[in-house]
Write a structure and sequence with these properties.
- The chain is an alpha/beta fold.
- It has a single domain (7-251), classed as 3-Layer(aba) Sandwich (Rossmann fold).
- It has helices at residues 16-27, 39-51, 66-80, 104-132, 153-173, 201-207, 220-231, and strands at residues 7-10, 31-36, 55-60, 85-88, 135-140, 178-185, 242-245.
- A seven-stranded parallel β-sheet has the order 3-2-1-4-5-6-7, sandwiched between helices.
- Helix 1 (16-27) packs parallel to helix 2 (39-51).
- The longest helix is centred in the middle third of the chain and has 29 residues, at 104-132.
């Protein structure tokens, strides 16, 4: 098993890619700390893992809140003694709102989850990783963080920022045996759309204008296998990288 004995934190683990990552990591021997704002959903994921013989606990947390991030990491350490892997998966959409219509509230809410949350979890685990000179961080970004209009302006900016943060952390802490990489998925069949309400028709029209070029949608399990690679020793020489997983959509 690729992650035998490792302790892995997965945010946004109640559904979609986070759920698939938590389940796969547990199958590969990791002790999983599954976190989500959806308490009932993440508890159900942990129940499924433990029923199959895996090891996992559920921690209800909103990554947009510093106190929740502190509690999440502290609980992992208290329960399992350390943290080896951090998967920053929690994220929300932005209703495809274009720049002229952005409100401060929307900007701050999306950045709080998509960018500030990963910064805070990373900030909290880095001293743990530095002390033992080992650790892997995987940030779930988006092709929206590499292209200009795959979503609204706020989501696009938040994912560009996350990719820049990934590269910075990867380079600056590489000498401590710490790796920080990102995955940039294309269209994946998750429920992130439920974070949208009454999307901007103008913004959505612009963002979806190239949708016909998308070869296909992905499955959460297909992203989970990439996360497993990046979190494992198989990716020991991969650091500060962004792996695009979009069936070739952005290759056009």
């Amino acid at each position: 098993m690729k992650l035998s004995g490792k302790v892995a934190i997965v945010t946004g683990a109640a559904s979609g890619m986070g759920k698939a990552i938590a389940e796969l990591f547990a199958q590969e021997g990791a002790k999983v700390v599954a976190s989500d704002l959806n308490a009932e959903g993440v508890q159900a994921v942990v129940k499924g893992i433990t029923e199959k013989g895996g090891t996992a606990i559920a921690v209800t947390a909103n990554v947009a809140k510093e106190e929740d991030v502190q509690h999440l990491i502290d609980t992992a350490v208290k329960t399992y003694g350390t943290v080896d892997i951090l998967i920053n998966n929690a994220g929300i959409m932005d209703n495809f709102v274009p720049a002229a219509e952005i409100t401060d509230e929307l900007w701050e809410r999306v950045f709080a989850v998509n960018t500030t949350g990963p910064m805070r979890t990373t900030r909290k685990v880095l001293p743990i990783f530095m002390e033992k000179k080992s650790g892997a961080i995987v940030n779930i970004a988006s092709i929206g963080g590499l292209q200009g209009s795959r979503a609204g302006a706020t989501y696009t900016a938040s994912k560009h920022a996350l990719i820049g943060f990934t590269k910075n952390v990867g380079f600056q802490y590489g000498e401590y045996g710490i790796r920080c990489n990102a995955i940039a998925p294309g269209g994946v069949e998750t429920n992130i759309g439920t974070t949208m309400n009454n999307p901007s028709q103008f913004g959505m029209g612009k963002a979806m204008s190239g949708a016909n070029n998308n070869p296909r949608s992905g499955k959460p399990e297909e992203i989970a296998t990439i996360a497993l690679f990046l979190a494992s020793d198989d990716a020991s020489f991969v650091n500060g990288a962004v792996i695009v997983a979009d069936a070739g959509w952005t290759a056009y």
